[in-house]
Design a protein that fits this description.
Helix 2 runs antiparallel to helix 4. The protein folds into two domains: about 55 residues, Vcp-like ATPase, Chain A, domain 2 (Roll); about 160 residues, 3-Layer(aba) Sandwich (Rossmann fold), CATH 3.40.50. The strands form four sheets. The chain has a seven-stranded mixed beta sheet, sandwiched between helices. A four-stranded antiparallel beta sheet has the order 2-1-6-5, covered by helices on one side. The model has no long low-confidence stretch (mean pLDDT about 95). Helix 4 links the parallel strand 7 and strand 8. It is about 25% helix and about 25% strand. It has eight helices and 15 strands. With about 300 residues, the protein is of the alpha/beta class. Bound molecules: S-adenosylmethionine (SAM).
């Protein structure tokens, strides 16, 4: 199993996602002899997981069943242990697209945080790209490096435990794209520029507050970045419901024989699926500021 390649069978040491329902999942590290408790009973790794296909429906000890899914960056974002605030798929999708990431891209990122965005970047740039990720909190940096190894993407990423605002990304002139998710991104803009290739490249900064955006945009403009734009991505997930609608009764197709032939009222109805827009929706997460480094 690897987060950047699909494997068919579950093996010892893999991460699998136990899917109990649309709003209930849990990640497990598959180990010989280990057991995982769920509300449907116990899953025995040796018998129920190892050697089975990813996607298998597994019956737990109390008779309920779960699906065992192959991990993906999307599922990891929903299931990872939170050590910090994280980025979610709505923003991540925009970031990977607008940074023009592709297999082979070299990317610099700070901070690593819980590694939510990092996993998505790694899948996009594999098998030949590289991610340089900088995190100044030592335990977070170590934990992220450990997870990257466990998820078999360690060869695609270098984790540096340093302050990006003071020491930069640890590389010069190599990055196609830079991403910043730190409280003072404007202090890292110079380092972002140094890390980037001479010819162009894209930068993105995520900030929850508009005052942070203002300072970052000013720093980007001062460093000669172009095409500076800020956007906010809001997600509206529609609910699907089944409803029964009465069929209108337009009377008989046949002309009435006599005025006394009254049409029989119809109770006919039809079951349809319909969607409703959400009454509540997730609010503001943050602003995404993008810019392009001009060729020199
Ligand atoms: C909000 S989290 C990043 C979350 C990450 N994008 C994710 O999706 O999981 C911000 C991280 O930046 C780190 N950080 C803040 N300032 C930093 C700096 N100057 N240099 C390096 N890391 C920094 C924090 O320790 C924290 O772990």
């Amino acid at each position: 199993m690897s987060f950047v390649e699909y494997s068919e069978f579950i093996q010892e040491g893999d991460v699998a996602i136990i899917f109990l329902g649309h709003d209930s999942m849990m990640p497990v590290k598959v180990q010989q002899g280990a057991q995982t408790q769920t509300r449907y009973g116990v899953i025995r790794h040796s018998k129920d997981l190892i050697g089975q296909r990813f996607g298998t429906k597994v019956t737990c000890s109390k008779g309920g069943w779960v699906y065992v899914l192959h991990p993906t960056p999307e599922l990891w974002t929903l299931n990872l242990p939170h050590r910090t605030q994280i980025l979610y798929t709505t923003d991540i999708a925009n970031i990977t697209m607008m940074l023009e990431l592709k297999p082979g891209s070299v990317v610099c990122e700070s901070g690593t945080g819980s590694g939510s965005l990092s996993h998505a970047i790694l899948r996009t740039i594999a098998p030949t790209g590289h991610l340089h990720t900088v995190e100044f909190h030592q335990q977070r940096a170590e934990k992220a490096a450990e997870e990257f190894r466990e998820h078999r993407v360690g060869h695609l990423v270098t984790v540096r435990n340093q302050d990006v605002c003071k020491e930069g990304f640890g590389v010069t002139g190599v990055a196609d794209a830079v991403f910043l998710d730190i409280p003072s991104p404007w202090e890292a803009v110079k380092h972002a520029k140094n890390a980037m290739k001479r010819q162009g490249g894209r930068v993105c900064s995520f900030s929850p507050c508009i005052e942070q955006v203002q300072k970052t945009v000013e720093a980007l403009a001062n460093e000669g970045f172009q095409e500076i734009s800020t956007l906010e991505v809001l997600l509206r997930v529609h609910d699907v419901r089944s409803i029964t609608l009465p069929l209108p009764d337009f009377g008989s197709d046949q002309p009435l024989e006599t005025p006394t032939d009254t049409p029989v009222p119809s109770n006919a109805s039809v079951l349809c699926k319909t969607t409703t827009p959400p009454r509540d929706m997730a609010g503001h997460t943050g602003y995404l500021t993008f810019a392009t480094k001009p060729s020199v």
